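FORM 7B: Structural annotation worksheet

SECTION A. Query
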Amino acid sequence: MLAMASALALQPKAGCHTLSHLKLCSPFVVNAGATDLMSPIRLLVPLALALLAACATQPKQNVTVEKQSECPVKLTNGQNLILTLPSNPTTGYRWAIQDSAGGVLHTLGPEVYRNPEDAGIVGAAGVSTWRFQAFATGTGRLRLTSQQPWAPEVLPVESFDCVISVN
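SECTION B. Predicted structure
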């Protein structure tokens, strides 16, 4: 880059001015045949700031939802949705996916149950987590119910229903 800067600075250009022993050519300053390295750096600073600003406007890769009140959810194609709901399988109640928003989301794996390590109590409640990825533009519903799997005729004790929009 320095060789290119030197070559550019030493070529005669329109807009060059001579002051005393300095020859000023935008964007480089030539002083006794040496290139001032600060001018290229001054050009890179606004470019770097512009790139950082562009990166700052990118959506987060993962969107986490932990309760119904965080719905509806808007995603962009390729974003991951992480759904985490309170769960206690030792009571016999399990979350079951009734509608997976299959037209806009696909699952990244099975449900993962985790209980707090510091609970110290057998049968303590924990959380169930599902991971999905947006793959198509559109709208869908992610709907889960908490019920005992052996008694599907009994109404669920809890439900989660969230509209998912993918742009």
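SECTION C. Observations
Confidence is low (pLDDT under 50) at residues 1-13. The CA atoms of residues 6 and 35 lie 6 Å apart.

SECTION D. Sign-off
Analyst initials: ____
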